[in-house]
Design a protein that fits this description.
Strand content: 15-25%
Mean pLDDT: 83
Shape: elongated
Number of strands: 21
Radius of gyration: 53 Å
Helix content: 40-55%
Distance between the termini: 135 Å
Structural class: alpha/beta
Amino acid sequence: MSTRTSALDTVVFGVDIQSGDVRGDAPSYALVVFDGEELDRDVVTYRKLRRRIDDERPDIVATDNMYELAENKDALVHFLGDLPDGTRLVQVTGAEQPEPLSRVASRHGVPYGKDPMQEAEAAARLAAANVGQEVSAFTDTTEVKVSRGRSTGSGGWSQDRYTRRIHGAVRTRAREVKSALEEAGLAYEMDATEKYGGYANAVFEVEGRPEEIPVSRGRNGDTRVEIERVRRDGIEFQPLVKRRDHVLVGIDPGTTTAVGVVDLDGNVLDVLSTRTADTADVIEWIVERGRPILVAADVTPIPETVEKIRRSFDAAAWVPDSDLPVDEKQHRTREIGYDNDHERDAVAATLFAYDDHRDQFERIARKVPPRMDRGEITARVLTGEESVEAVVDDLSESDDDDEESTEHVPRELTDEEKRIRDLERQVERLQDHVDDLEATVEEKNERIAELEDDLDAARSRERQEVRKDREVTRLQRETERLERELDEERERNESLEGKLERLKELWKLDHSNFSDVAAEKKDLVPVKPVEKFTKDALAAANDAYGLAEDDVVYLRDASGAGRSTAEQLVDVSPRVVLKNGGLSDVADELLFEAGIPVGPADDVAMQEVDELAVARESDVENVIEDWEERAEERRKDRKAEQLDRLISEHRADRGESD
């Protein structure tokens, strides 16, 4: 879509058929060349028209009927494809349903006459003023194909070198095209077919028109470059410039100026707030978004800046009877996004103005005939205080006389056109019937909606009752579960309290000087159990309650200990080791050498409290005394064995000497 606001730097060809028919053999055309200042008129044949377009490359070829230049859609696509890069075909009377040229010219103040040369001039002037729709059969995507410029043929070794050279040239040219596209900042997708020595071809899908691509089509040595726009599925129309609809504008002036723009249906189109823009900048911003027919303020009287902007558009004014309260503005704009209070006030003023005129806008919309500009009629009614009927009559006064003048040469309809006409009439009748049926359906839908509302309300009440019952049941179950947990916790608490008391007694036994222990407890000594005589079990016991010098250690399973395990226990230096099971010879020897008493656990009456245990001091003393007696006998036996061994060795030595 063009952003051009002036056509003075362009050349426009206005074209209208002079005689004959494009479906015939020799049509002639009235041609007007307009550069914004001068007009050049000529009557040319179709072939000469095409030649002048190719030679002079105008920016626009303007016509009131695109099918005056092509006999059908396929021919029109071919015509569009043959236009030079940068040349556009424009139908100044509209898109699929064009208006009479006389009406369009009158609306835009362009001279009009029924003579073909005058119609060609009107088309040129309208296109130069950015009026009309660009006719397009192609997208804005262009295909650039780099391929072989020569056939590779077939042959032996020399032919292989020739083929490799051509494929290498295609790859080199493709890289040049890629670099040119990247330097131009054009987005593209590349698809290359690799062959022996390089590429057989490379296809670029480029986001841009051919005139924007810095690559030339044609053949150059071993390569060929083809440039073609990508076809659309059909014919499309695009306005030369974005249409500016009629709008309502609200302004909040001050150090920060805010503007809100609303269409004739009450939809917020845009919001602006600025501290730097002057009045001219604000007006320019508004012009880019529409044609104001009403300018509103949220205070009364209307501020001077707002009045100045209103007069620049010759628009109607709206102010409230009294300054709009903040809470009302907040409520009216509650569903509108805004960044600050100034934007809120501008939008609120516009919406309150729309609310004030809403009934009037709807009445006008109902009375506007099809294909007439509702905004233009609304503007004249609002600012000129004319009736809708008077404005409609004024706009259509000259159209009735000129409707038939748009047909240059009456001709008999083809069978296909007659069929289309009959089908269109049938469609109109069916559409009327559909409207009636839709009205009936709408009534029934309204009744259904009412009943559905009642049903929804009843279901809602029922769901509330069900949810209430479910919640009561859930709470009852939750209460029962909590009561069970409470009973379990109470039992566990009682058990833990008993355990705590026993642990306190053990702690006193292990850490105090027994001065605060009851007399009946003084004969007790703490015992520290170890599950197995292994390094891991010793470490676990040490982590749990600590193994220290002079502790009473209880080995629940004393078997299997090796030297390193026994040495670890020796390092603790316990007072006594009580055991279940037999010690290994190595462990027994190490404990004996270290002077650590060892005795059977069955000789000691122990009471276990969870991980710990207690025993009577007297029992422990008895075990130690028994061990000391056994140890003394063991030492005597060892000395006797040593003496016997020495005597034997001495006798052996004397026998050898004799």
